Amino acid sequence: MAKPVLEVKDLRVSFKMYAGEVQAVRGVSFNLNKGEVLAIVGESGCGKSVTAQTLMRLVPTPPSYIKEGSSILFDGKLEITELTEKKMEQVRGAEIGMIFQDPMTSLNPTMTIGAQISEGILKHQKVGKTEAMKRATELLTLVGMSNPEERVHQYPHELSGGMRQRVMIAIALACNPKLLIADEPTTALDVTIQAQIVDLLRDIQKKTDTSIIIITHDLGVVAEIAHRVLVMYAGKVVEQGPLNDIFYNPRHPYTWGLLRSVPRLDSDNSKELESIPGSPPDLYAPPVGCAFAARCPYAMEICKEKDPAHFDVSDNHSSACWLMHPDAPKVEPPVGIGGHAHG
Amino acid sequence: MEPIAKDKFKPVEKTTNADVIVRPSQTYWQDAWRRLKKNKLAMAGLVVLIVLTVVAIVAPMFSSYDYKTQFLKDGNLKPSAAHFFGTDQFGRDLWVRVWWGVRISLFIGIMAASIDLVVGVLYGGISAYVGGRVDTIMQRILEIVYAIPLLLLAILFIVFMGPGITSIIIAYAISGWVTMARLVRGQVLLLKEQEFVLAARTLGAKPWRIIAQHLIPNVIGLIIVQITFAVPTAIFFESFLSFIGVGIRPPMASLGKLISEGAGVMRYQPHLLMFPTIIFSLILLSFNLLGDGLRDALDPKMRK
Amino acid sequence: MADRPILEVQNLQKHFNLGNNKILKAVDGLNFSINRGETFGLVGESGCGKSTAGRTIIRLYEATGGKVLFNGEDIHAMQGKDRQKLTRNMQMVFQDPYASLNPRMTVGKIIAEGIEINGLYSGKQKKERVNQLLRDVGLNEEHAGRFPHEFSGGQRQRIGIARALAIEPQFIIADEPISALDVSVQAQVVNLFKKLQKEHGLTYLFIAHDLAMVKHISDRIGVMYLGKLVEVATSDKLNAKPLHPYTQSLLSAIPLPDPEAQKQRQRIILQGEIPSPVNPPSGCPFRTRCPHAMPECAATMPPFKEVEPGHFAACHLL
After folding, report:
1. Its GO biological process terms (chain C) (predicted)?
2. Do C113 and B203 touch (CB under 8 A)?
3. What is the predicted ipTM?
4. What is the pTM of this model?
């Protein structure tokens, strides 16, 4: 089997604050294969965005720092955590492209979009200005913008939110990166525009075979685009596995809660939505044991004492929950979880 | 994996409350003070200002000299135990005169702060809060005031009313508050569209309540910062006028006046220039350092 | 006895003058009514005017035209005492959990504000009432002395709800109360809304852009597009048989959290962007993106008519 595009091992990122250390990411490990779309889901503050930004080394140090023992191996050879800032600049844009949540603020308002797209091409590839501009036009066509020849001369403020996100995608794709990181790419957009962008990302992935990491809290988007899913809670991965396994055979109570709290158009209105009581823990003082124990309806004594290991459900599906231990009582997922695929 | 006792796998009753807050509670002011304390330069500025103020109040009281009595035979003495900063050509004690100068500077500073606080804050606040046509008219007036050069205005007043503190303060009162008014207006315009103000309105809050409970507490930080920057500007303004000879009337001593006198004899009596200049620079520097520190400490955007 | 609706909105208009002869018709002729004890959901994408509608109904904005009748009385004609009485009966929950609470006030003071303004309780009773409200929204007394920035988004939103409940209103306008929250927390807050409705007999106008969530909480739903209502129906009907092409595409755009179902689904993906409300298209506002647009749509605005009993839509196809 080919080498993974990205191997993340025991990634830990903390922020130094006045009150002490906020442990935003507390030991995250995963692999990303070529051509794979990996979705990282979780609620705000779970560390998914910090993880994504750390892959690009975009979190400023200080206040943040990557802890000893963390490893991000890109393309089997580049150790991202050890690269100098100068080397990192060559990786960003050329090897890894990034799409941000807010297309309004991530574009430079004083440059034409053509200039912004060709900026990366000129920096990383040995081509002339005309060639770069030509490539920018092609990219705009690729991301589905009409009249690309005219668009390259426009400024961001002349475009709507959805168009700007398309431009962001074009910029990220400019140098044919091996990896595309999309941090909440649809959150700031309206539903009908969201659908357009997700569709576009999926198309592009098929056409270019780029690996994509998509950070989102929207399980609908995950269901539509991802091949594999990583569920994060309180700075840790609590469950990971192939798309269908996570949706139809989830093994972690947090994943259950997450799946059941999403309202569905075909669900019964009179029933209460399932919600997860309480709030996520403050990572300034992470709880002892499993971070989810305080909100977990199945919590056992062990959960409050020891952090659960990752138990394998199948070859590529694992869950960090003591319920998976052979001695634990058998708990079936609550009603409404699983069975959809075949039922 | 090490073995785990079987009874550890018994489900437990829910005892923990996931809504509990673990961080220590801190009010806005506690947090700001903590930030300020961490800023060494700003704290140094604060300490210097406190020391200067105390000495300016105390020193002339415990000295056997005053600022105006001349001892012509003791003219141009070098610094000594009797005259810490030496004497000027008329035999007046420079130590006392410098601290009188600091008193005047601080007095001007306090007056400027009061004018800023009363006129600037009220003007900006009313303009933004009432809005609409009132705002438009008040802004045009403000622009006219802003267009009048402060120096010209001051000299005009001095010509009409004679030199002295009153003229300087009146001149400052006419146009010195403009920056504050603009800042407060901008902030209030932002705040009054905030949802917490809308919420207070839907609860039926009267304007005075919205101003007192919701607007003022949220602009006070900005006002404090602006005042710490306005004070040195006013002090500098007075000293400048005194330096060019249209400010404080002799024999009263102001730092600008002292520096001006010292500059005339700096080749023969350098201490006459040195002491007032050092003190003057210390005051301005301290205010600016403190202002910078306060801005960082009180800025709600930097707060997390 | 057929009760009169608690709220009747009649041809409500709110235009903003942007200067340079540009007029933003944020709300342009809304007609709907809300019955006592029900939840009416108002959905639409950003810029459709749903939030402006909410704010105009509670009179944070003065209406440009039309009427809002609350218990039969015109809100926009009320003065002095009557207006104060309206305040007591109609409250609002805001969208932004960070901007909707005064950062310099303790949570206890925030919740007590309405009680103080309206002189409901004082001293010990007031404190007891605040504690009761905190418990009602799932927080506790200890939280009263803390400041908003110490709370998570969901907790803040619950504080906002407690503030609105403090003066015992009959009717609450919830302006995108869950848009800024995480999914599991959204469910928490929606459940809290439902619980409080049962306990206090509240009526809600629930404004949101998430049709799935709105469908879950609402009895009836109105869909807005560029300042106009395009469809009103019971939430089940709207989901089962949407009549307006915009509603159809809106429903279709929501991705299902179910990979298999998602794959099998035929989706309508709308082309193009939402036109600017400053310069809306002639005739039907949706025609520029509508897959079924006809020449007639550019000429005249289709009437908002009752297609089936209780099911209204504005489309020339019907």
Report:
1. peptide transport; transmembrane transport
2. yes
3. 0.87
4. 0.84
